[in-house]
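>> received
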Amino acid sequence: MISLDDAVTARLESHGARFEVLVDPDAALAIKRGEFDGDLEDVIAARDVFENASRGDRPAESDVEKVFDTTDPMEIIPQVIERGEIQITAEQRREMLERKRRELIDRIARNAVNPQMDDAPHPPDRIENALEEAGFDVDPMERVESQVEDALDALRPVIPIRFDEVTMAVQVPPDYAGSAQAQIRQFGELEREEWQADGSWIGVLTFPAGLQNDFYDLVNEHTSGEAEVQIIRDEDEIARR
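>> returned
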């Protein structure tokens, strides 16, 4: 369950009665869109249905039975959310807006590159400033995934940007190969790997282009900066590694 401070109220009025439930705002939106696939118990603040959640008042059991054909709160809660309205306070809306804004910036930074700078990643601060300059408004009630394309359209007149993936080859010296390769191989999609006769490890990975600096940091951390890393420009290079 979540805390009361993190919950919003979903309200349904039907047959002259009012029903309220307390739920995580993002989960409420996912349930309303038919996209929720988690455990309901994890996203509600109370395993209960209220007439007035702020006072803790409960509706008459006869009203509950008449509207929902059940008195089981775990069956009723999704119905209240799906059929009712999500009540969000101004403070909750501000918090949701800031969280969605950060998620959007992070998602773009992970995947975007600057085609005018040899496909170098855009720092999150640059993307944030460009979104502000473009006047792009994040919708706190919509999924981040559905706002990415609109955000990119707004960004393109301001900064050179495109979504891309990068393929990189890394050769880890024998002294670090055993432990380092286990960490490195999880960073992206492992295209191929090879153990050399001297005990060194070569891996070729593909991942979102915006994560190049993170990849360098990971490799350097686990190899004390002694690994060799190279960007692979075409599939023929992959085959030759």
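>> Residues 90-111 form the longest helix (22 residues).
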